[in-house]
Amino acid sequence: TCMAQSYNLFPDVCIEGEIPIERSVGTSIRKGILEAKDSGSCLDTNFGWMTNKDMPQVEVVKKLQMLIGNLFVDDIRRAIPNTKKAQIQLTEPNLFAINPGHTYPVHVDRTKWYTCIMWLQTTNKGSMCYQENFGLRLHSSPIKIQSATNYIKPKVCKYACFPSHIPWGMTPNNSAVETICLHMNCMAIPKD
Q1: Binning pLDDT at 50, 70 and 90, where does residue 139 land?
Q2: Tens digit of pLDDT for each residue in 10-39?
Q3: Strands 87-98 and 48-51
Q4: Which residues contact 153 (CB under 8 A, 6 or more apart)?
Q5: What is the DSSP string of 122-156?
Q6: Mapped to the 3 state alphabet, what secondary structure does 93-116 carry?
Q7: How far apart are CA 130 and CA 151, in angstroms?
Q8: I want to staple 106 with a disulfide (CB 3.0 to 4.6 A). Which of 59, 110, 140, 169 is the partner?
Q9: How confident is the model at residue 54 (pLDDT cuts 50, 70, 90)?
């Protein structure tokens, strides 16, 4: 009998999780969202609004950024042992909102390592995060065998972190309320 070995080549590590948030913390998050929206650093967009990445974020966003960042660092160090000595930095945090009936356009954060999204307000009909495989496999894989699109269903306090080179966007918001997410990027600096 022939012994074969299978393995993933150049795998992309993706992380999904949920954070249990107490009601009082949820209330302060909603107040922080309103504060951020009214802060003057909010930009109206064709899909809704977003806070300016170049401006300081409100306190609740800073705390959420640190929480998600710590969870990401713990998870990525377990998944990729070579990151144990790396300095991991969280960059460009911001909030974005998708109005009912709108989508967040697909894009790539080319100069970053990982992208993290956390749903702060959504429903089961809110915007899902989708990731596309625009590589050569898109044209060589049978659709029903290996999909070229991955969907992450929305849920309040759910987060997803994935390599920034993967094109991503948000599906149409089919709910009656805004889908509001925290978005940030991560960088890794190797240390000897």
Answers
A1: low
A2: 678 999 999 888 877 778 888 888 888 887
A3: antiparallel
A4: 124, 128
A5: --TTSPPEEEE--STHHHHS-TTTS-SEEEE---T
A6: EEEEEECCCCCEEEECCCCCCEEE
A7: 4
A8: 169
A9: confident
Show Cβ contacts of residue 16 under 8 Å, excluding neighbours closer than 6 positions.
152, 158, 159, 160, 161
Q: CA 42, CA 127: separation in Å to the nearest integer? A: 20
Closest among 189, 181, 10, 11 to 96, alpha carbons compared: 181
Alpha-carbon dihedral sign for residues 63, 64, 67, 70 = negative
Structure tokens at 110: 């080319």
Query: Tens digit of pLDDT for each residue in 142-170?
Result: 666 767 788 999 999 999 999 999 999 99
Rounded to 5 degrees, what angle do the CA atoms 121, 153, 151 make?
135
Question: Alpha-carbon distance 107 to 23, whole Å?
Answer: 33
